[in-house]
Amino acid sequence: MSVVAESPVFAAPQNAEMDAAGWPIREDVFAETFDEADEYPLLTDEDTPEPELDETYWPGETIEPEWADYVGEDANDEYYQHDHTETADEFYEHEPASETDQFEEAGDVEAAEFDTLDEAGLDHEAFPSGLVLTARPGPTSQGEEHWDPNNTGLPLYDTGPNVRKQKLSANFTVAELVTSGGRPADRARISPALVACLQAIRDRAGRPVKIGSGYRSWANNVALYRARGKKPTLSRHCSGQAADITIAGLNGMQIAKLAIDAYGNNIGIGIAKTFAHIDVRGRPDTWTYFTGHQNTTTLNEINQYRANRTTPPTPTPTPTPTPTPIGSVSADRKVVENLALLRTHVGTPPDLLLEWNNMSHPSVVDVVVHLHGYAGQGKAMNIQTHKKPISGLNFADPDHPDVIGRTSPTLFVLPRGHHQPASSYGYNEARYTFPALVKPGALQQLIDESLAVFAQTTGVTVRQGRLILTAHSGGGAALMAILAHTDPDEVHVFDGLYSDPTNLIKWASRRMASSSAALRALYRPYPKSAARSAPWVNARNNEQVARAIAAIGSPRFRVEQTTVEHNQIPRRFGWRLLADPSADLPGAASSSEIESEADDESWVLQEGDGEYWGELDTEDLPDESEDQMGFGEDETGYYSAEFDADVFQAVGSAKTVQISDYPRYATGVGDLRPDQVADMRALCNEIVFALRANQQVSALVEGFADFDAKGRDFEQQVSIDRAISARNFIVEEVHRLAPANGLGDEALRRFSIQVAAFGSRRPTVARPQNEDERRQNRRIHIILQSIPVPPTPTSFDQALDQAQRALPRITRPGPQRRLTCMLAKLRDSRTADGYFSYDALRMFPGSAGWPSMSPAQFDLMVRSTTVHVRPQIQTLAAAARDDGEMATQLELLDDNIGRNIFNFESQLVGDSSTGTLMRTFNATIGRLQMDPKSILSRYAGYARIRHDQ
Predict the structure, then answer these.
(1) Highest mean pLDDT among 220-224, 391-395, 456-460, 496-500
(2) Where in the chain is the domain with CATH 3.30.1380.10?
(3) Could you name the CATH architecture of 332-603?
(4) Which class does domain 631-788 fall in?
(5) What's the rounded Cα separation, in Å, for the pair 530 and 514?
(6) Which residue from 380, 403, 630, 696 could staple onto 397, CB 3.0 to 4.6 Å apart?
(7) What is the DSSP string of 38-58?
(8) Given a cut of 90, is residue 246 above it in pLDDT?
(9) What's residue 642's pLDDT?
(10) Can you name the CATH fold of 47-307?
(11) Is 63 exposed, middle or buried (0-12, 13-18, 19+ CB in 10 A)?
(12) Can you state the percent helix, strand and coil of the chain, rounding each to 5?
């Protein structure tokens, strides 16, 4: 199994000098050269020897079907489909200007080399794993398909599909050694010495070694060179002795030096910019793929390095396990049930989950914060049970725990989001957001508190190192908000760009020049039937990011497609990216290497935790024509032509009513139960009351359907009919109630209602098993939102004048008497600032209707009147078209105050909602209502007032 471990070679000591790529310069790998050695003289541009032409082929093509079966199945993480960005033609642009027709060694050199190999017994060595392959005869004569141009005597093995998964060593399979250009060979040579060399390099590096080209038949070698107009070389690849390798984070020179340190000088090395050719020819030969001065300086540097490494390294003994020293930290996790920072997040505890790996005397730890997506469990979602297993926060392959991933000291931080089923996008029981973390400084506060919990738990105080942000699905929206004011070192996005990616692009543009930054994004392709759907927008946003970062051409900045299930993407790839952000990911490829559209079949709702798609920003979607029913398809469903998402913003007061249990195929309100119809009528009354209070009222009716064998089009039509029927009922009921409530055409114009339909796209039960579960999917949601209408600038004196003129139009004596008294008191200068003196009671004209009160009672009532009624009088005056409408509204105001005294509380403005006034009001209101001598008794209901009083 593959193990990604921290190697002493790359463990940078404190204050270590760093090279340009961010790697520590250590004497045992990247040491400065000493004095020149006679056997490795320095070169000048004039005496540069001609290099051996390397035969590496980087085709950038997909793997053939036969091999595709193996990609991603092997637990070994060493083999990845090579997607090197340079084509073979581009690669050969780096060849020396002087062409080498064919590299030939003198006969005595060939003999000496063969003797060396023979003495070492390489022909008969077993592979390091003990694997024995079967020799398979083939055309091996000179010039034939499998000719060995270097006469090594290595046999031709059977390397068909049945053995390709077999291990040649701890980290390398047969498939890796016999593949070139993405094509595995059914018959191939493999040098046991090459396998031992590669494993030594792998062990020394402590990270994956990726083979771009292993064995290549002579026939393929000839074809490769002739395609480039060149004569073929006597390639060591044809002898099974060579491999072209890359190691994440290292350039060609660094790989070459590492190979010398790991296996000694007696190897052939070809140095390129990003990779190195390594072969076990048994003697030190070196060349480059550069020209001119760069070729000369590269050869001088590697030759000097060879001169200082005249003997093979001493094997590193396997360390004996020792007890954890004092000051070290063992891997563990901490569950935080309640965190003050997240107290406003609605949901099921715990609020926070922390996890860390083994650490030796840590002083700095990296921090990885993951923002989870939606949850099919709704409010019952538990981050330990439902989110951690699919988060990608793993220090090893979750399916093969012996395959180690990230080893540097790291703290995983998994906060629970806020359960928010109702939003401007409609009702979705699975929705989670992160309002407490998107504000500037909030994320850093979370990190600081997490480090404090870590210190309290382990007894070790550390400071923050690198910051890595990861997000899945709907968590991407919070990530985009955070990136507006936060600068992490790495960002990993797992199928989560359903919202505007501008902030991500801006961050990447700033950080692309840094060798330590990384952006990796993965997303699923969208099916043909999903145009303008959630996955369509997600894919479009990912492609936008891909275009923005394409110029850098860095493996650390990539956007790739995958057909891995939505909920499994973080789990499959997260641990690999945390181990190496430049890693090639099996099962992922750039959009140019994978079909741009997925089969519809792959987009059925997925099992798991119910978190299938995110929701979207709608403002930048391209316009499309509506269909014959006046509906246009949008990102999450079908919306009425007049739909305006801007109406439903998170302001004002909102209410969502869900009505389920429609009979099968029923769409009309008349098909509902009587209690459900009553609920809809009550909602219409709320709309009318809001209009009477001068509110701007908006409603959205959403229709849904259950899954049906007749198909999505039929389901969509059913949901449309349900939504339209509910809308028509609401409109008719509101207009029926309007006249009795004093609402004219002007008031009704403050009410708007819109319709959306989603078919079976957003089910309550994703996989219904019985009729009860199916009835839950047959439903409508009615989202009601009211926003105060700002009054036009009108002075209070003008408002009182208009109210005074309207008083004679009020025919009922009770309201007229009380309103006359109220207006007189409001007009008096002594009511300024909401205060009225008890001593001035008898000085007021028109005080009819105010009985004798104690000073406290009187003060309470006047304060309530001036605080609550004064602004309402002004608002009514601004909205009323004439004195008649003003009279109607004043009478309704009096009636509203009287019949429901607690409406006073809902009408509080400014600072009056706090302090002694409210405390006094709440404490005495009940008693005063029951006192027939109190003015409040009259406002409690006219039925208790005798006509002679």
Answers:
(1) 391-395
(2) 47-307
(3) 3-Layer(aba) Sandwich (3.40)
(4) alpha beta
(5) 37
(6) 403
(7) TTB----GGGPPPPPPP----
(8) yes
(9) 35
(10) Muramoyl-pentapeptide Carboxypeptidase; domain 2 (3.30.1380)
(11) middle
(12) 40, 15, 45
